[in-house]
Design brief:
Serine Threonine Protein Phosphatase 5, Tetratricopeptide repeat; 13 helices; four-stranded antiparallel sheet; Alpha-Beta Plaits; alpha+beta; 2 domains
Length: 255
Amino acid sequence: MRRTNMRLRTVGIGFALAGVMAGFGGCRASHSHSALTSPAYISLYRSGQYAEAFEAAKGVPTSASGRERLIAGMALEALDRDAEARQWLEPISRSADRQIRGRANATLGLILAKEGKHAEAAALLDRATADLSGPMKGWAAWYGAREYDEIGDSRGARRLSALSQLRGGLSVTVPHPGDFTLQLGSFTSRSRAQSRARATIQAARSAGLETPRVELTVAGGRTLYAVRVGPFATKGAAMAASGRFPGDSVVIRNH
């Protein structure tokens, strides 16, 4: 049980950053006067400020898409306030928007898994794979397969495991329009990564860069939390920016 709970705690941020940040990175021009910026609750969430993200999201009137409810619910899950998270996520688990519905069901599945309700968790994660796409679909399938494995459903586990391989379930990345990203650290602990991200916010602002973010990565079978900023069009630009941040950093090429 301990192994499962530790494993499940790693995926919440993976769903959020790989999916929400890619899908909700900016407002739609036809619905917002601020089409080039992300809503505050999304920016707060991606910088690991979950309590603040929840407060910001809950103050926004519910939209047709329900994305503010999604961020509020996922922020609460990250804070281990699971009972409250359910109240925000369950209404949008039947949303007409497939991506919203898929993310909500995936997060609800994680909550059920933490409670040891593996059959229900597997069913929700399986359902989420039908609605999600790309890496998000792969991650839902990958963790759903492990929930099926927990209940001895080898057929379900094999099916979702195969799907996760096809959808890139073992490599979560967030698409960026530049070729290079500056990595400010990589940690096995999410809390340490969040602390590093918060410590570099002011330096990023002073340099005119976006807020440093925490991204879930998998290397050599290990789950890691990378603190990154960018993108940059050239390696030189990324290297120049590295001098603005305290501590070690490395320039990585986006794939």
